[in-house]
Write a structure and sequence with these properties.
Layout (H helix, E strand, L loop, with lengths): L15 H13 L23 H8 L13 H9 L7 E2 L42 H13 L37 H12 L7 H8 L4 H24 L6 H43 L5 E3 L2 E3 L1 H17 L1 E3 L1 H7 L2 H17 L18 H10 L7 H7 L6 H27 L16 H31 L8 H21 L3 H28 L6 H31 L3
Antiparallel strand pairs: 1-4, 2-3
């Protein structure tokens, strides 16, 4: 799942001095740009002798891919996938604006954009060891490759650098998160994205598909790694490709960009729905007798807690700077480990949940549901380009991706095996619902499960909200309209969550219909479309195989999930 806020870039009107700096850089640069789509090479366009001012001016020229909807994709996904230093501000406070400034420039016209120097940072503090001249030159090349300026609004005619006294220096640590993440930091960012609420349903997936269904988990993990590598190949194939929508644009034109963007946003929106269902189920387990009576209307615990959760998360979606939430939600790795550890503690130490049978080896009728549940676990491809761009050594990306997928798979498999051993055929769609409420480990697991989605809801909804705000006319991009739009998104997700309160089935539907396209089908299709003249026959065969398998899984999984959801109403 770019043109990033995390790249400390800003949009303001250009002046003659900046244009002259660009021209001087072109005439005096020793390393002219030599790019060609045929070989996919990207030569360094900056010489070590270039001044930071010249390099910054040269980098201000946006890629053609970043000028089309959604321009906000990179910024919002950086917020979703990275840790930011806490800083609280609301949409209606232009002087404290961070994230949405570039998309609301017409609403706050006349106010200079601020430096977002602390908005996006690597998951862990990066090393501040001074770099050599070669490393500085390489960083300058990466800055050129990645557009470090926010996309212009409809009214903006050109780009100008930020004031010189506030300008980040090229080649120094302050430039941004690009080339700042170590191998370990990249792995932790990847695990933080992959280990979400999907881990709670892995025991339920074993119940649906049987023990042999765990093979599907391993196969999907291996294919997710391969398709992640394909995305990297696509990004490196042409100058200016930075996001998943950019890849779709390069492969299939504007229609491909729009379709891929819609699928990615639908996946994020569905994840927000899952958050509300999860909160409703787990809080109802903690407080089963809670209810609210208004006249002749009585709200049971499930409805009540879903509404309360929506009311709690709604103000967080109005925040312009979500760094405070992202800083907390980055503990998703720790939260997943804590939840799985509590499950093992309850089973091994408290000796809870002995089953009478060994379970089913293979349950063919439940395999489609299991495929969707396992597939949902690997829905991180929209963020992989960000992880790739953040690495100090980008040639480590295959190893980073392999490690984070392997670690995530170990957590998924551990929770699945232990949960199904403990609860057998009585396994719920979330194993936290099976944990005895009187045990300390159970309470820790449940409260950890309840807390994490509250911090992640706004981060997950923001990409969709920003993309819709881009479509508003400039004179409608006002604070009341934006708050109304984001509030409508929250209310709509609440309505869907109350209408389809089936956590496991909704997850299977999302995993089958959306994740299969995002993680498996589209990466292969884009790879073949962009690099069709360079791929080998076995790459074509493997990609076609993955596409066919993905389409089959998407078809049977979607049909099975929808059928079971419909059956719930009969």
């Amino acid at each position: 799942m770019k043109n990033s806020v995390s790249e400390r870039s800003f949009l303001i009107e250009s002046d003659d001095e900046d244009a002259a700096a660009v021209e001087d850089g072109k005439r005096g640069g020793h390393g002219g740009e030599e790019s060609g789509d045929d070989d996919g090479s990207r030569s360094d366009s900056s010489s070590p002798c270039d001044s930071p001012r010249v390099v910054a001016a040269r980098c201000s020229q946006p890629s053609s891919y970043t000028q089309q909807w959604p321009q906000s994709y990179r910024q919002s996904i950086d917020m979703y996938s990275s840790v930011h230093s806490p800083n609280l501000s609301f949409l209606g406070t232009p002087s404290l604006s961070r994230l949405s400034n570039s998309f609301l420039t017409n609403s706050f016209r006349g106010k200079p954009p601020e430096i977002i120097s602390s908005l996006i940072k690597p998951l862990l503090p990066a090393s501040t060891t001074p770099t050599s001249d070669d490393q500085q030159q390489q960083q300058q090349e990466d800055i050129r490759k990645s557009s470090h300026y926010l996309p212009p609004s409809r009214k903006a005619s050109s780009l100008e650098r930020i004031p010189e006294d506030h300008r980040p220096m090229v080649g120094e640590h302050e430039v941004g998160p690009y080339r700042q993440c170590s191998y370990f930091q990249g792995v932790m960012n990847g695990v933080n994205v992959l280990c979400g609420v999907g881990i709670l349903s892995t025991p339920y997936a074993v119940k649906q598909g049987g023990w042999l269904g765990l093979v599907i988990l391993a196969v999907l993990g291996a294919l997710a790694w391969y398709t992640g590598i394909l995305l990297r190949r696509c990004l490196d194939s042409k100058e200016g490709l930075e996001t998943y929508p950019d890849i779709g644009h390069a492969a299939f034109g504007t229609a491909g960009r729009i379709i891929i963007s819609i699928i990615l946003y639908m996946e994020l929106y569905a994840c927000c729905i899952e958050y509300l269902i999860l909160e409703s189920d787990n809080l109802s387990k903690l407080f089963p007798n809670a209810h609210l009576t208004i006249g002749s209307l009585t709200l049971d615990s499930h409805v009540l807690f879903a509404i309360l959760t929506a009311l709690i998360v709604m103000p967080t979606t109005w925040l312009r700077d979500l760094s405070c939430l992202s800083f907390v939600s980055a503990g998703g790795v720790i939260a997943s480990i804590v939840i799985v550890s509590c499950l093992f503690w309850v089973g091994l130490v408290d000796h809870v949940g002995t089953v009478k049978s060994e379970g089913t080896a293979l349950n063919l009728p439940g395999i489609p549901i299991a495929i969707g549940l396992y597939g949902y676990c690997y829905s991180g491809h929209g963020v992989f380009p960000n992880i790739y761009s953040s690495l100090k050594k980008r040639n480590q990306f295959p190893a980073v991706l392999f490690t984070c997928i392997a670690l995530s798979t170990v957590l998924f498999a551990g929770a699945a095996i232990m949960g199904y051993i403990m609860f057998g055929e009585s396994t719920e769609s979330q194993f936290t619902l099976n944990l005895p409420p009187n045990l300390v480990a159970s309470k820790i697991a449940v409260w950890t499960t309840v807390t994490n989605p509250i911090t992640k809801y706004a981060l997950t909804m923001t990409p969709l909200a920003l993309s819709l705000e881009e479509l508003l006319p400039p004179n409608q991009q006002t604070y009341p309209n934006i708050v109304m739009l984001r509030s409508v998104l929250v209310v709509s997700s609440l309505i869907v969550a109350l209408s389809v309160p089936f956590f496991g089935l909704v997850m299977s539907l999302v995993g089958s219909f959306l994740t299969m396209f995002v993680a498996y089908i589209l990466p292969c299709a884009c790879f073949l479309a962009i690099l069709r003249s360079k791929v080998t026959w076995y790459q074509v065969a493997l990609c076609v195989f993955i596409i066919v398998v993905g389409l089959c899984c998407a078809g049977v999984g979607t049909y099975s999930s929808l059928s079971k959801i419909i059956q719930k109403y009969h």
